[in-house]
């Protein structure tokens, strides 16, 4: 028998006055996965997150969280580690005071809390600062303390709203390591993020939303298949070229400048034929092969997603 997913979202809608913030969304998250919520500003990620933690409720559809042999209509408080978009710690208090406060609030024994606080402060290289007031830390370091505060009670499910925002690349990498460690401990992580390079490294599966709807859903390999592109070639010619002289289907070709084109390939099967066709355009000077990264896939998928107006007119 297949194990029940830890989270199941089924045909969920959420409206605010005229706006449909979440529009018939369905997906599930398996236990122990790192699952990313992606999408442009206003795509509906925060509206979804608010429903997942029970701050608001779907207008229709269901959210089911399967935990401790029970099911809940939102992630129960005791099992949730939450990093909200608006961070909330006590800036006058020290790191340890802040963290101890949150751990005790979540019912963690004082001794155990101390061990976990020391462990994570060490991991984030903040142990030396443990007795400093939070406000004396840089924004990035405060963010790390906030992340630690979300996991001190060792929750089953961690939900992080934009954990990379405001962090420099070095600290972003530290958050990647932090999340990988949570995964190693069997914790399920759901995060919203705009940093595609981080998501690409981390996420087992992802949901790309736009206008409240699903645009892509699955692992990186699966979404590449969904969008029908796995690689691209960039070809530079000795002289300017004219795409109109090409016999082949040019729908996947883009003229980057007068003598350079990019071609998207859904698989490498027809590479020989394609290359022969492309030599019709002129003498090749340089060929470069690239795999499309998540950032490019994201842009492409959002550009292809029909607007509300197009959907209304059945496009
Ligand atoms: N409380 C609210 N009242 C009215 N409209 C809202 C409310 N919350 C969200 N919306 C609208 O719902 C849509 C989705 O917003 P949401 O904040 O969920 O998007 P998001 O993907 O989290 O965006 P961002 O990446 O900018 O945080 C937007 O059009 C937004 O204006």
From TrEMBL:
One Pfam family named in its UniProt record: ABC_tran
Record keyword Transport present: yes
SMART domains: AAA
GO MF assignments: ATP binding; ATP hydrolysis activity
UniProt keyword list: ATP-binding, Nodulation, Nucleotide-binding, Transport
SUPFAM superfamilies linked to this entry: P-loop containing nucleoside triphosphate hydrolases
Domain (ABC transporter): residue spans on this chain: 7-236
Family: Belongs to the ABC transporter superfamily.
PANTHER family: ABC TRANSPORTER ATP-BINDING PROTEIN (PTHR42711), ABC TRANSPORTER ATP-BINDING PROTEIN NATA (PTHR42711:SF5)
Protein name, as recorded: Vitamin B12 import ATP-binding protein BtuD
Organism expressing this protein natively: Pseudoalteromonas holothuriae
Gene: btuD_2
């Amino acid at each position: 028998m297949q194990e029940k997913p830890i989270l199941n979202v089924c045909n969920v809608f959420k409206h605010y006055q005229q706006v449909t913030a979440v529009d018939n969304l369905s997906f599930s998250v398996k236990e122990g996965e790192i699952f990313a919520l992606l999408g442009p500003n206003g795509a509906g990620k925060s509206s979804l997150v608010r429903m997942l933690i029970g701050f608001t409720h779907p207008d229709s559809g269901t959210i089911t969280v399967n935990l401790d042999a029970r099911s809940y209509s939102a992630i129960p408080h005791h099992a949730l580690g939450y990093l909200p978009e608006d961070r909330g710690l006590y800036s006058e208090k020290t790191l340890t005071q802040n963290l101890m406060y949150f751990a005790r609030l979540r019912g963690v024994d004082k001794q155990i809390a101390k061990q976990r606080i020391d462990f994570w402060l060490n991991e984030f290289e903040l142990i030396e600062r443990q007795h400093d007031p939070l406000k004396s830390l840089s924004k990035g370091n405060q963010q790390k303390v906030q992340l630690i505060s979300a996991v001190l009670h060792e929750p089953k499910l961690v939900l992080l709203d934009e954990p990379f925002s405001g962090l420099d690349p070095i600290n972003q990498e530290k958050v990647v390591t932090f999340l990988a460690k949570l995964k190693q401990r069997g914790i399920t992580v759901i995060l919203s993020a705009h940093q595609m390079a981080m998501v690409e490294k981390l996420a087992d599966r992802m949901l790309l939303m736009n206008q409240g709807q699903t645009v892509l859903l699955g692992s990186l390999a699966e979404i590449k298949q969904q969008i029908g592109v796995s690689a691209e070639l960039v070809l530079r010619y000795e002289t300017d070229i004219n795409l109109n002289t090409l016999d082949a289907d040019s729908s996947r070709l883009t003229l980057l400048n007068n003598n350079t084109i990019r071609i998207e390939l859904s698989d490498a099967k027809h590479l020989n034929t394609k290359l022969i066709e492309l030599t019709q355009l002129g003498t090749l000077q340089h060929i470069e092969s690239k795999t499309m990264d998540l950032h490019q896939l994201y842009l492409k998928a959002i550009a292809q997603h029909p607007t509300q107006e197009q959907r209304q007119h059945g496009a």
